[in-house]
Amino acid sequence: MTESPKPDFEGLRARHPEVFDRPLSARLATPTMMIAAFSVFVFGLIDLEFSPSRFFSGLHQLGWIALMMIPPDPGSSLPVYLVALGETLSIALLGTTLAAVFALPVSLLAARNIVPSSIFRFPVRRFLDSIRGVDTLIWALVWINVVGLGPFAGVLAIAVADFGAFGKLFSEAIEAADRKQVEGIRASGGNALHEIRFGLMPQVLPVIAGQVLYFIESNTRSATIIGIVGAGGIGLQLAEQIRVLEWQKVSFLILMILVAVAAIDWISSKLRFAIIGRRAVV
Amino acid sequence: MTIAVSILPAQQLAVLNDAYRKAVARKRLRFALATAVFVATLIIAAVGAEVNLRTFFTHFGNFVSYFDRVLTLEDGTRVWTNIGEWLWGWQKWSLLLGETILISYVGTLAGAVLAFALNFLAAENTAPAAWLRILVKRFLEFCRTVPDIVFALIFVIAFGLGPMAGVLAITIHCIGALGKQYSEIVENIDMRPVEGVRSTGAGWISCMRFAVLPQVAAGFAGYTLLRFEINVRGASVMGFVGAGGIGQELVVAIRKFYYSDVSAILLMIVLTVFVIDIGTGWIRGRLFGRDRHA
């Protein structure tokens, strides 16, 4: 075996000074950032009252809980749970549909190519932003104050929270639409409404339908948790069973949620492909 | 002015019109059927969710006036006429908001480190063994499908009330979400550097460190910052189940009808989320900006 020639270190050094002689500040930047991030982390652990003993006794407790969860068993309340799951799916579907119906006209007002004047667009956008800044669970609490405990409050909470998100997403989809078809409608003598109906909507609707389906999917997850504050559905059952420490029922409910979410995922991705073809989604 | 539109012979026109009508009729029928199925599903869902339009309309006034009440101080004046009275608890709330941000920071960082350790095992092109990949992928899926607040409910019982349960819940959820996003980035890398490093006789860990990591670091950082932002929102409601942060104060204010406090706390949460959004957006811009120069 022949020995490979020694690399020409001096030549390399001379040719690529930026690799070998980086300034001190550049070399120190990454370690400094890491140390800073780590010290904030340690400060956080202390401030949030982490202690090894608490952590390990909690872990012990958790292992015990996990053992108690096996095997998952609904007891005699399977019918109740199935009804609750149906309620959750209904909440997700209705909430998302309501949000989409109300968000479509508002999103037109927030789109640059429909409302060119930023004086009108700006308040609409900030309004949508502030709705989005408030979590679905908070909306659920507010609606419970208004229409009482139950799944209806959940529907309204999801509708309001998604209204903000849809308004933004739809207006982005509208802004991305092709100008030429709108101009074509105008050239053939259509008025502003015709432009929106025949020039914009055929381009925008498939995109919007894809987004709505995607949200129904993610709202199935949100709908499971708003039950925790009393807005109906399977989350209500789950929170109750956790509070009374019925671990076998808890694990059964979690499994039900996982299966339901997977099923909705599957159905909505099939529908999405049927509506918009095999193009990239969202 | 002469009109230059040529009119097709009647026969040809009839055939074309016929074909057009047929095509449109089929499309319309399909649309009508889909709409009917959708409306039927909605009606079933409405019955299932106990939708009651009468309650809605009788109480809708309540919803509107709720915002009126929320924006009114106890002495009947508007909140913005007396900012000091409105934000009377700002010191306490700022501390709790700080705790919320800290919960989300610690949870995100711990989750990111663990997701980082796991993602190379879950990505198709870097996984050392197929069975390991499938195992890790299922684990990540479980972590992100169970909502973080459900983990928080269980952890509050195991670890006791307080921010620790919130941090751990966010960590678990973060492992699932970031692990998936990280491994997707890794699956999209250029494999030639990996082959280059492997051809020098390097082991698996060196391959990851010197060939994969430089390609994915910026993407990882971007997703982590985005996740931090999402987790601040998530941490703001952890208090609802007793897992620390501002949520506890908010839920008490809503349930006990301390109207002006509700708006004050919400205002502070929205502002905080807004500031964090802008801050992480700025850092992301700098990270990716610097990358372009390199």
> End-to-end span of chain A in angstroms?
58 Å
**Architecture (CATH level 2) name of the largest domain in chain A:** Orthogonal Bundle
Structural classification of chain A: mainly alpha
Distinct helical segment count of chain B: 11
- Strand tally of chain A is 0
Strand content of chain A: under 5%
In short:
The complex is a heterodimer of chains A (282) and B (294). Chain A is mostly helical.
Topology:
The complex is a heterodimer of chains A (282) and B (294).
Chain A: H1 9-15, H2 17-20, H3 24-47, H4 52-68, H5 78-109, H6 118-133, H7 136-147, H8 151-175, H9 179-187, H10 192-226, H11 234-243, H12 247-276
Helix pairs in contact in A: 5-8, 5-10, 5-11, 6-8, 7-8, 8-10, 9-10, 10-12, 11-12
Chain B: H1 10-48, H2 53-70, H3 83-86, H4 90-122, H5 130-145, H6 148-159, H7 163-187, H8 192-199, H9 204-236, H10 247-255, H11 259-293
Helix pairs in contact in B: 2-11, 4-5, 4-7, 4-9, 5-7, 6-7, 7-9, 8-9, 9-11, 10-11
Structure description:
The complex is a heterodimer of chains A (282) and B (294). Chain A has 282 residues and is mostly helical. Chain A folds into 2 domains: 9-50; 77-281, Orthogonal Bundle (MetI-like fold), CATH 1.10.3720. Chain A is 78% helix and 0% strand. Chain A has 12 helices and no strands. The longest helix of chain A has 35 residues, at 192-226. In chain A, 36% of the residues are buried. Chain B is mainly alpha-helical and 294 residues long. Chain B has a domain at 89-288: MetI-like fold. Helix content of chain B is 79%, strand content 0%. Chain B is built from 11 helices and no strands. In chain B, helix 7 crosses helix 9 (204-236). Chain B is flat. The model of chain B has no long low-confidence stretch (mean pLDDT 84). The chains are: A mainly alpha (282), B mainly alpha (294). At the A-B interface, helix 3, helix 4, helix 5, helix 6 and helix 7 of A face helix 1, helix 2, helix 4, helix 6 and helix 7 of B.
